[in-house]
Amino acid sequence: MCTSIIYTAGDSYFGRNLDLEISFGQEVVVTPRNYPFSFRKMPSLDHHYAITGMALVEDGYPLYFDGANEEGLGMAGLNFDGPCRYFPEDPAKDNVTPFEFIPYILGQCKNVTEARKLLSNLNLVKIDFSAKLHLSPLHWLIADKSGEAIVVESTAEGLNVYDNPVGVLTNNPEFPKQLLNLSNYQSISPAYPENTLIPEVKLNTYSRGFGSRFLPGGMDSESRFVKEVFTKAHAPKGKSEIENITNYFHNLHAVEQQKGLDQVAPGQFEYTIYSDGINLTTGTFYYSTYGNNQINAVKLEKDRLDQTELLQYPLQSEQAINFQN
Ligand SMILES: C[C@H](CCC(=O)NCCS(=O)(=O)O)[C@H]1CC[C@H]2[C@@H]3[C@H](O)C[C@@H]4C[C@H](O)CC[C@]4(C)[C@H]3C[C@H](O)[C@]12C
User: Fold this and answer.
1) pTM here?
2) Which of 29, 130, 134, 138 to mutate to test the pocket of ligand 1 (most atoms within 8 A of CB)?
3) From ligand 1's centre to the CA of 34, what distance in Å?
4) Nearest residue CA, atom 27 of ligand 1?
5) Which helix (H) or strand (E) holds 177?
6) pLDDT in tens, 90-139
7) Which residue minimizes the CA distance to atom 28 of ligand 1?
C-alpha cells in the first residue's frame, strides 16, 4: 500500500509513503532540463522542465515513482491492481506508456490546469519497459503548488481524471468510491463529543481522544485514506520550513506501515520503505527511510539544471542517532 499527499502550509509539500515488501534500488534523481527524454510513441523531449524525485535508473532512463518539477507540479504513482487497464496504441491519441507518464507530464506542464490539457487526449499504452521490467498497475496523484490536486485512473472505461478535494491518494478502490466512503466518518472530530447517546446520564469519560474513537487504523487502503484525510485536515500549519516539514512527515507517519503488520506472503511483510516530500516552491526534496528516521534533504541546485546528465543521490539508509553523551 502507499499513501500520497499534498499538504499546504504557506508553501505546499508533495510526496508519499512507498509501501512494499521489496526494494527496487531507488534513489533521489534530478533530471536536468537538457536530458533527452525519449518516448516509445511520442516525439522525444530534448528540453523540458527539470524533475526531482525518487526513481530507479535503468539503462540510463529515470523510472520515476514520484517527483515534482521546477515549476511546482508534483506527481506520484500508486498501486491500483484490479481496476487498472492499459490499452493498445490508438492512432487518434497521444500514446504514452505508464513508465513514461511522470516525465511526460512533469516535463511539460507548470500546473494542474496545463496537465489537464495534456490528459484530455492521452492513452496509457500497454508497452513494457523491458522483458525484465513489466508495467505496474498504477493510478496517479497530480498536484501543484496552489494546492490543487487531481487523480488519474485508467480503467476499462478509459482514462478518468477526477478532482481531488482532499489532496490524498492511497490504493483501491476507484477514487470516487474512496471519496464516497468518507461520508461514513464525517462525525470524526479532534473535539470531545457531546453525549447524545443518553444525555440525562453522566457518562464516565475515562479517556481523552473520544472524538476519533471510530477512526480506522488498519493497514488497508480505505482505512489509510480516511485516517490520512482526517490527520491532514487538522494538521497545524507551521511558521517555518522546519515546522512545516516536521508536520508533513508526521502526517505521512500517521499511515506508515511498520514491519511485521501487513503480511503479503508467508514470512513476507509490506512496510513503508521510504517517505518523501518536496517543497513545491523551493524544490528541496526531503526523505526518510524505514531504517533511518532522520530527515535527509537534497536541495535543488539551480546552476546545475541546464546540463544533460542525471544527478543521482543514493539513499542514506543507515540509522542516524544523535547521542547526547
Ligand atoms: C509498487 C509501487 C507502488 C507502491 C504501492 O502502491 N504499493 C501497494 C501494494 S498493494 O496495493 O498493497 O498491493 C510502484 C510505484 C512506482 C512503481 C515503479 C515505477 O512505475 C517505475 C517502474 C515502471 C516499470 O514498468 C516497472 C518497475 C517500476 C520501477 C515500478 C515498480 C513499482 O510498481 C512501483 C515502485
Assistant:
1) 0.97
2) 138
3) 27
4) 133
5) helix 175-182
6) 999 999 999 999 999 999 999 999 999 999 999 999 999 999 999 999 99
7) 63
